[in-house]
Amino acid sequence: MMHKFTSTRRFQASALALALAATVCFSSLVSADNRFTDVPEAHWAHDAIEYVVDEGLFAGTSETTFNPEGTMTRAMLWVVLARMDDANTNASSGEAWYQPGLDWAVENGISDGTNPNNNITREQFAAMLYRYAENAGEDITADTAELNKFIDTINISSYALQPLAWAVENGIVSGTSSDTISPAGNATRAQVATMLMRYDKAFNDDTQSDNPGGETTQPENPSASDDVDYTMKIALMNHNLSVGDKVVADVNTIPSTAKENLTYTFKSSDTSVVTVKAYSGNNFSCEISAVGPGTAIITATDSNGIEATLTVTVAGTSTSNPGTSDSDDYADVKDEIIELTNEVRAENGVGALTKSDLLMEIAQQRAEESAESESIEHFRPDGSYYSTIFEEYGLDRFEMQYVEILGWSTILDSDYIVDLWENSPGHFASMTGANKTLVGVGISVGEDGRYYFCQVFTDKD
């Protein structure tokens, strides 16, 4: 059977609803706005949940609840994507309820069809949606540098790097916080609803604007807003930011269909606190950058002249004059990082590291290189691997054990960065390597306002 992968609307009101159970729900669907007690209007995913329910893609877990924080299985996603492709998902007698979805997913290269009852992770979701988009003929090119803004990119499986970069670049995935993407975390029902809505809006021909960037001027006839019959709001998971944070907020309307043909302009009441611009991934979101401490109001104005506001509070120190640090900067923080690292080693039965002045210089240069490129990659600005730096300082890398770990944060906090490293398997292994005895630490600030950290471990200097 030939399956249709096109950009036309896939969500049909008559589509079968998916409940969070190994059954298919045939009951009539009611708007999330009127039905679900656990999805109030103030819920960050309210409009997305309303959207997928109204379009017949999801149903509640009961007559009055949606369970937004509940997880989804791989089988459930196969069935959802199959329905988006207009495939018949009715199981035959004696078949598992998800068998048609599994068959469709395998036939079309969406999934290998294994582990149907396992919870779907965020990176698995992105990979399947990426393959769906590829089969639909969408543009799936993406720059994996999009992921550098997340401190947990090291935890992304290799197969999911391009899909997640594509999802971030197109505004489908915006992270679980301003600097984490949680690739191995289970995708909740609310997250899946949000990501599917964003995909449909980004790639559905019927809903795309002639100006996808969302950059418009004020309407010539603002009085036209008197005729509209909808309300509008700006949705953001966390209104409390730290200096250096960059987050994406969505403009939502009630009903959700009202925004399909709208475009928006965005304004900050105080650009010394936050700046705002239209998000490049779609025509209904904005990118908010936290510049300095204080409170500011973000205003979105649509092409009908309707406005919505969002108050954002920023904590931290102004980054109006960021730059790379000298080697003596943050000396106390560097020593704290070494002390905390040695505590981790002691807890795991490994001897303490000795601070090396030479390695401190090397680590500082690597931190400055990271800040310059605004990325945490083990490659240097000239494209060479990081190990080439040892020769510059008179060390023979072929006669020594060595490793570096990198990270970035919007806050200068030794506990925070060491905790991140400790909870990442690869970084933890480097921190606790018994064949390393010396350590150096570097810290630098990039023009993006982020702190870039480097630790270098060796057995000689």
Could you describe the 3D structure shown?
There is one protein chain. The strands form 4 sheets. The chain has a 4-stranded antiparallel β-sheet with strand order 3-5-8-7, with no helix packed on it. The protein has a 4-stranded mixed β-sheet with strand order 4-10-9-6, with no helix packed on it. Helix 2 (46-54) packs across helix 7 (189-203), helix 3 crosses helix 4 (99-107) and helix 8 (331-347) runs parallel beside helix 11 (414-422). The protein is α+β, with helices and mostly antiparallel strands and 461 residues long. The relative contact order is 0.10. It has helices at 32-35, 46-54, 74-84, 99-107, 122-135, 161-169, 189-203, 331-347, 357-373, 388-392, 414-422, 425-431; strands at residues 17-18, 24-25, 231-235, 240-242, 246-254, 264-268, 274-278, 285-290, 294-302, 307-315, 354-355, 402-409, 438-445, 451-458. It contains 12 helices and 14 strands. 27% of the residues lie in helices and 18% in strands. The N and C termini lie far apart (65 Å). The longest helix has 17 residues, at 331-347.
List keywords for this structure.
27% helix, 461 residues, four-stranded antiparallel β-sheet
Described by strand count, sense and barrel closure, the largest sheet is: 4 strands, antiparallel
End-to-end separation in angstroms reads 65 Å
Structural class: alpha+beta
| Radius of gyration using CA atoms only | 25 Å
Strand order of the largest sheet: 3-5-8-7
Shape field: globular
| Low-confidence regions | 6-33, 205-227, 319-327
Average pLDDT level: 79
- Secondary structure: number of strands: 14
Strand content: 15-25%
Give the helix level as a range of percent: 25-40%
Q: SSE order in H/E notation?
A: EEHHHHHHHEEEEEEEEHEHHEHHEE
Number of helical elements:
12
